[in-house]
Design brief:
Among the domains are: 44 residues, no CATH class; 64 residues, Arc Repressor Mutant, subunit A (Orthogonal Bundle), CATH 1.10.10. Helix content is 33%, strand content 14%. It contains seven helices and seven strands. The strands form two sheets. Strands 4-5-7-6 form a four-stranded antiparallel β-sheet. It is elongated and about 100 Å long. The chain starts with 10 loop residues before the first strand and ends with a helix.
Length: 180
């Protein structure tokens, strides 16, 4: 069973600092300054062993254990046959059986044809006009998207329209441009 580290963010090497700020300050010092800082600030740090010793004992039930008094001996409980106890033990809620419900699918839907999906996202139809995305036009022409951007800046390439943040090319104007 893994235990929780009570010193997360406050330890460095074998030292545990009372705050993360003191830890960061110590880490930022030069090696020759660290020994003096530890001597000047004894209340700001402990060794890991001392810090673990000073931690209060913890129980997994949430009840804090008290240290035994010196010289006290607590008698061991009388052994009992299996199945006998003074009172009935409570059953945790997690052990109750839940009604059978059909499992909901958590799997992502599969795409039958990734090419068709990519092509669908590269096309927009507005008012009976079909627009192709810059990526698709570049692939059709055999050039890179960057080349299309250069042409657009120099007014040499096919006429484009910016829709949102992306550039699209109207299919009819693109065909006319390629016929020239």
């Amino acid at each position: 069973m893994a235990t929780e580290n009570p010193f997360i963010g406050r330890e460095f090497g074998n030292l545990v600092f009372n705050t993360n700020g003191n830890r960061c300050l110590y880490i930022g010092l030069y090696e020759w300054q660290k020994k003096k800082w530890l001597q000047d600030h004894p209340e700001s740090w402990k060794t890991r062993e001392d810090a673990l010793r000073d931690l209060p004992a913890r129980s997994s039930v949430g009840i804090e254990a008290k240290p035994a008094e010196p010289g006290s001996i607590t008698p061991a409980a009388e052994p009992r046959p299996a199945g006998q106890s003074d009172h009935e033990l409570p059953v945790p809620a997690g052990d109750r059986r839940l009604p059978d419900d059909p499992a909901t699918s958590t799997a992502l839907p599969t795409i039958a044809d990734p090419e068709a999906t990519a092509a669908a996202s590269d096309e927009i139809i507005l008012e009976d006009r079909k627009f192709l995305a810059e990526r698709r036009v570049a692939a059709l022409l055999g050039y890179s998207q960057r080349q299309l951007q250069r042409w657009r800046k120099e007014h040499k390439g096919p006429p484009g329209t910016k829709i949102g943040r992306r550039w699209y090319y109207e299919m009819n104007k693109f065909r006319e441009w390629t016929k020239r």
